[in-house]
Amino acid sequence: CIKPNDTKSAMVFTPELVLAQVRYLGLLENVRVRRAGYAFRQLYGPFLQRYKMLNPQTWPRWDRGDREGTEVLLAGLEYPAEELAFGHTKIFIRSPRTLFDLERRRQERVAQLATLIQKMFRGWRCRTQYQLMRKSQILISAWYRGHRQKNRYKQMKRSALILQAYARGWKSRRLLRELKSQCRRHAAATTIAAHWRGYQARRTYRKYFRSSASTCLANFIYRRLVHKYLVELAKNLPPLSVTDRTWPPAPYRFLANTNQELKNIFYHWKCKKYRDQLPASRRAQLQARLCASELFKDKKTLYPKSLQQPFRGEYLGLKQNPKYQKLHAVAKDKLVLADSVRKVNRANGKTVPRLLLLTTEHLILADPKAAQPKTVLSLTDIRGISVTRFSDGFLALHLKEVSTVGAKGDFLLVSDHLIELVTRLYQTFKANTGQALPLHITDRFSTRFPKGNMSITVVESPKASTNGPVCKKKGSNKMEVLVY
User: Fold this and answer.
1) What are phi and psi of 425, to 5 degrees?
2) Across 16-25, 89-98, 251-260, which has the greatest mean pLDDT?
3) In which order are the strands placed within the sheet that holds 452-460?
């Protein structure tokens, strides 16, 4: 109802008042929709909630957007394209016939779902009743069989006692007869054995001077063959290169195990001699490479690409750049690694540049512009690291809740030298605490932030940038990371 004027008088028309009522009631929008030929409109959410049972892809639950769900629902119903129009927030249907057909299909589908629920309930009720009857039948049968078996057992016991009495008497009589016969046989066997032992003693004494000749001869031949084998091996030893695994084959089968042991001993001796010749810096670098291989080989796609890059450790030039002198002063203990990383913002997923300094006891994140430390972590505050299995530099640094900076939550970082960073951190943590740092290589993990835990899902996508991962917030407690 539209008031023509404020006084409710006849034949008085106030244009401004009527125009304001028409705008507030949405009549102008109705007129524009009707003029375009659309008889029905509705928001995507209520429309999808009402008709989602008409398509198996949207029923019983749709986890993505309302508009996308509405498009999938109507695409499965195969309506003409001119009958539908998709706005920013609403769906428009041109013909009432299409709307009536949707209602008819919905009523039919609701009836089918109701029938399905009734069928499942009746099946459950019948199964429950059958199981109850079956349990009762099993209990009755068990008691009846027990009673019958008890009576049968008593009868069998009485019969067995009678049979045992007769059997024991017969066995006792037979045993007596056998004992008498055995006594006679024993006396005869004793006499025969005495004569046989005397014969054996006399025959052995005649052969005594030749008894050990074969053993001495065999030992002499074995010693001669072993001596010949060792002399030939000393003349044909392989080169001292640690990459050369060749070894002369065993000339005799009984020397196969000895030959294998000598091969292992010789190779270990070559490796030890090679290690003793290496300088301390080269030895530390090889130990870091070995640790990286144990952590990432056949587990992360980025590892083969990192084999061509040497572990430099210092990428910032702290001593040459006067701007970073203050950072070098903050790191009072020995510096292990200095590199530039990108820290992921927890609120919007964007990254900001940071300077990372790893020492023997601390991990420092600093602002590159002001060269001021932002966060100083003790290595004992770190409880684990999570990385992906793809060729990206994304990592999550998990902190203990009781640590000095534990209230800030975990850190999400992106590094161009991920393999070296994680390896150095793993070695330093183990040297400092005597324990191995937990490393998780997975595509889905949970992080702890001040506002609650957040689930991180890493997806390999061509939409990701080649410069690094792309982080997107999905709600308040989910984040999706796209890697190239």
Assistant:
1) -65, -40
2) 251-260
3) 444-449, 452-460, 478-483, 470-473
- Residue 466 is encoded by which pair of tokens? 């080649």
Nearest CA-CA partner of 454 in 429, 481, 432, 428: 481
pLDDT tens for 373-413 read: 888 888 888 889 999 988 888 899 998 887 666 567 888 99
State the pLDDT confidence band at 180, using cuts at 50, 70 and 90. very high
Half-sphere exposure of 340 (CA within 13 A, CB side): 12
Strand partners, 472: 480
Contact 471, 481 (CB under 8 A): yes
Q: Which residues pair with 394 in a beta bridge?
A: 414
Positive/negative CA dihedral, 347, 348, 354, 357: positive
* Strand, helix or coil for residue 335: strand
Q: Which residues of 284-297 are buried (b: 16+ CB within 10 A; e: fewer)?
A: ebeebbebbeebbe
Take residue 76 and report the two structure tokens written for it.
């499965």
Q: Cα–Cα distance between 462 and 478 in angstroms, integer?
A: 21
Each residue's pLDDT tens digit, 93-107? 888 788 888 889 889
